[in-house]
Amino acid sequence: MGSGTTPPGEPALPGDDEPGPLDAAHEALARARRAARARGLRPGSPAGSRRQRRAPTASTTSRDDRDPHPVGAEIDRLVAARGWDTDVQVGSVVGRWRTIVGDRVADNVEVVAFEGTTLTVRAASTAWATQMRLLVSTVLGRIEQEVGGGIVTEIVVRGPGGPSWRKGPLSAGGRGPRDTYG
């Protein structure tokens, strides 16, 4: 219906010759497509495809803040901006402990705390605690070479700890069990 012609033998209805609202919509869409083609656009293509690329000029080849940066440089910038320099260097000492002191010492002496510029280590035996106390100045020099000066100024060496009978912050004082170990 709506085509403007009526089949033979049927009476013409009053609204057959008038264009309907759907016809008006189709006509508006056709006009919009013709206008887009006249401007050089392709109807139905994504909006980003009509962007024109510019050839690089001398001013666009210089480094810009929007250009990609190496990840390491960005991490260094973030660490400096947040004031994490010292914390990262402390973590570097703990992470490089085996490289700084060597495999044999690292197997028997471990880092247990780092407060301020004081590094506390615990030895597996009293012999290793004595050996580590003799190596303190050498280890301080190696830390200064690996990480930088002023990060560690003192190393406190602890011997092996015995079993602790304290089981929490609220415990009764006293000597503990007396007949367990002879």
Automatic annotation (TrEMBL):
Residues 1-71, 162-182 are annotated as: Disordered. InterPro entries: DciA-like. Residues 31-40 have a biased composition (Basic residues). Pfam families: DciA. Residues 62-71 have a biased composition (Basic and acidic residues). It comes from the Bacteria. PANTHER family: UPF0232 PROTEIN SCO3875 (PTHR36456:SF1). This is DUF721 domain-containing protein.
